[in-house]
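sry for the spam today, last one i promise. struct tokens for design, 177 residues
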């Protein structure tokens, strides 16, 4: 089974300041652990960066840059996106064509936006998905705390497993590459 690791939106603007995601240092440590395991096993690591007009995530801005502390490699692939779905109008499908890749390990930011959209689209396209339960995060939304949003998505996404593909939601330390 061919696998790839998707690291979604671990960018400066979402890891510090006003929009800093919940428990971000622990999340980045877990992501670094996953990416180190993936690289050691020869599994592609794909760094996905969101961009939009304005100051926060404008392409090339400080906020758009990958977060401090996120370990990367020159061999990692990069994807630029403008919507929550990492597949929509990006080069991701060229990097992980369905005929060559059966499984995607997904982690990053933000749980209720880009993680949710990408996990659902990957399942819809027939990929088996492993969502690293402790390697994604978000911010409070005014109704729910970030912790509750993460727990709710971990539970709900695990129940989306279908007849063609599956979603496994497991701690990053238990993810096999």
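last one done:
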């Amino acid at each position: 089974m061919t696998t790839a690791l998707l690291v979604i939106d671990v960018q400066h603007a979402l890891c510090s300041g006003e929009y800093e995601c919940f428990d971000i240092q622990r999340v980045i440590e877990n992501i670094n652990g996953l990416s180190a395991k993936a690289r050691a096993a020869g599994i592609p690591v794909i760094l996905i960066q969101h961009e939009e007009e304005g100051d926060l995530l404008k392409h090339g801005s400080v906020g758009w840059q990958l977060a401090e502390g996120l370990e990367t490699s020159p061999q990692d692939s990069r994807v630029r996106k403008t919507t929550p779905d990492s597949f929509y109008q990006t080069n991701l499908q060229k990097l992980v064509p369905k005929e060559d890749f059966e499984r995607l390990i997904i982690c990053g930011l933000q749980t209720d936006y880009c993680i949710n959209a990408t996990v659902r689209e990957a399942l819809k396209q027939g990929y088996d998905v492993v969502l690293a339960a402790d390697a994604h995060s978000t911010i409070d939304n005014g109704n729910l705390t970030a912790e509750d949003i993460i727990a709710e998505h971990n539970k709900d996404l695990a129940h989306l497993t279908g007849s063609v593909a599956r979603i496994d939601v497991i701690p990053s330390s238990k993810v096999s590459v």
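The chain has one domain: 3-174. ok im logging off now
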